[in-house]
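Troubleshooting: if your tokenizer reports a length mismatch, compare against these two reference records.
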Amino acid sequence: MESVMSISEMYKVAEIELVYKTKVKASQRPKASTSKEVYQILLQSWDENKIEFVEQFKILLLNRGNKVLGVYEISTGGMAGTIADPKLIFSAALKSCASSVILSHNHPSGNLKPSNADIQLTQKIVKAGNLLDIAVLDHVIVSAEGFYSFADEGLI
């Protein structure tokens, strides 16, 4: 004998919950005003065992006053690349109510020069941010010994 599903069972869907939790008081959040400050904040969140081993993509999430709401790791890849999905970047920004983001990734080789793929990806993410009214302030390539800022070099 077949069981008949009720209307409420037929239209049952998963519930989505968005949560942003912080353990850092607003007054204690660092401010990211310069690319050097951004680099210092990023280095503290980077696993020193991975910075010269595998490529990772992270974002800094900022409020209107450029105070850091958090650092979010988007992906970890191999030695020659990683994936930076704009949907993941902006879902984290929206979830944390960020006003702006700073993109970052490392080059395990230590070469700080951006590739054509880095430049194209940055342009794509900047355009997406414009649609969502979430500014992409910079894209910083980091290594254990230094950094490259797209904003400082006029690429953003």
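Reference record two:
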Amino acid sequence: MDTKKSRTRFAWMCVLPATILFFVFMLYPTIEVFRMSLYKWSGYTANKTFVGLNNFKILMSDMKFIHAFQNTILAIVIVTIVTLAISIFFAAVLSREKIVGQNFFRIIFYIPNILSIVVIAGIFSAIYNPTQGLLNSILNLFRGNETPILWLGDKHLVNYAIIGALIWQAIGYYMVMYMAGMANIPDSFYEAADLDGAGKFKQFFAITLPLVWNNIRTTLAFFIISTINLSFLLVQTMTSGGPNGASEVVLSYMFNQAYTNGVRGYGMAIGVIIFIFSFLLSAIISVITKRDILEY
């Protein structure tokens, strides 16, 4: 009995520090965000005015917020679809095909994920440079020395330019995750499929994709959270929301409202909307993509 109590006490001692940190730095700040979203507060004084849901009512008619929210949804949709398709394609190729230098390609693809987001912003700012950038230089080989394309200065292109950087940064990380799942698939499955005359394309959709489906479901939530977070960092370092607010995303708009314009309560209301949106979208996708677990 004493041994059991000692083990229980030891387990609590191990868990307690992490639990305290979770409550102090995660749960409490989250509750405070919800509470402060009900106040009108500059963040620099002790004077707070309770306004109830008024901040949320203003949000619903704030066209700048709606535009930033639309940009965020656009980024989530495109980054998720394109990154998922490319990363799982390369994961399948590097896992199943006999390619010289497989480990080299794995490292090359993963490098963007270990770079600082500021470094990535610098790389793509140079690539998108209208006069000396790599992208315009390549395009000029086919279109001649026409007026340079302002990738970060055109309101119709800037969001797609940022999305391109997000995709480049994410592909290697998710590719490695999918490769880990594919590595556990027995070779006998593919050998049996070969004997039945199934081609590579059929094998991918009949064997590989179903057996790594749980990995894909998990990464879909990662896509949502990481896109929301990283799009803010890229916007802040590459465009600062420009030109004329065209590249503003919901987190950058929240930051500007809370810390630049000094309406902290309004900014917290935006934070609450982001939290609820992320949670609901992740839950909906989890339900939609749920299927029976295939065992092997």
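Descriptive notes for reference record two:
- The chain has a mean pLDDT of 89.
- The chain is about 75% helix and 0% strand.
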